[in-house]
Amino acid sequence: MSMHEIEDLVHGSIVVLDKHFPADDDRLPGWFARLYEFQSAFDCSDTRGRVRDILIRRGHGQPARPVRLIDVVAAVAEAAEADGDIELIALWHGLGYDVLELVDPMDSPGAARLREIVARTDAVSVELPYGYRPSDQDLDTMDDELETWWYRVRD
Asked: Is the pLDDT of residue 85 over 50?
């Protein structure tokens, strides 16, 4: 069975990036490639057909610069904030720093940007599926400073 949540997350990210970045922004092919590389780590179907027109128009498949996933996610969050899509922000943040491939998230400018957007939009208040992120009660008793820091973005 496919992981539709990841497929929908990548789909929504591509749509919002396309909507909010200029037509001549040469970063998008690399961002799209990185999103599909992330998706390929899960049991997902090939979903490029859902956004074929965007991918063709934006030059997906051309050689692209390598990019860190967190930098793509931060760009997605910025575009989603402009679009009012707080759920998309919450879903990316809710995955956790380890799924976003961060070794030291406290020293990551991309992680800082994402957490600022999460705090500003109050994306931590968006209901997510059970187990997607720890509850406030779980955070109070958690013995993992990094995990607590990641999820507790407001005082």
From this structure: yes
pLDDT for 155 equals 61
Query: Computed from CA positions of residues 87, 89, 90, 91, in that sequence, does the dihedral angle turn out positive or negative?
Result: positive
Distance of alpha carbon 145 from alpha carbon 127, whole angstroms: 23
The answer to whether the CB of 113 falls within 8 A of the CB of 74 is yes
Alpha-carbon span 115 to 103, nearest angstrom: 16
Asked if pLDDT for residue 140 goes beyond 90, the answer is: no
The residues, ordered by sequence, that sit 6+ positions from 82 with a Cβ below 8 Å of its Cβ are 20
CA distance 75 to 17: 8
Buried b or exposed e, range 77-99, using 16+ CB within 10 angstroms: bbbbbeeebbebbbbbbbbbbee
pLDDT attached to residue 137? 87
Residues 48/55, Cβ–Cβ less than 8 Å: yes
Average the pLDDT over 38-60 and give the result.
Answer: 89
